[in-house]
Amino acid sequence: MPVVDVGPRLIDTSVWIRSDRKGQEVLRERLKELLVAGFVSICWPIRAELLIGVKTLERWASLDVQLAALEQVSITDATWSRAAGLGHELARKGQSVPLPDLLIATTALQHGLPFVDRG
Q1: CATH number of domain containing 41
Q2: pTM value?
Q3: CA distance 52 to 44
């Protein structure tokens, strides 16, 4: 099925990881379609999480080059501040959210990007 032109989106680490597993052919194909269409953006927390998970230095270098080719979404001081505020607000409600997740969500919000997560 062809990709509908819906524009760029931020793809979470969980989607990248899950798409690489057996039995996830549909997800893998959809991600490939989005990549070919140029609809995948990335930010440093996602990129770092993916790089941390590789097993060899050779794979690390290869993946780093591949991820660098994607649209890089910036994280500014305003992003950090908004993420901290969101984390504080959620903590007051009894919810603990890891900082990378707060940064990723806030980055998507600030850039008006749909956020794709499989969590």
Answers
A1: 3.40.50.1010
A2: 0.88
A3: 12
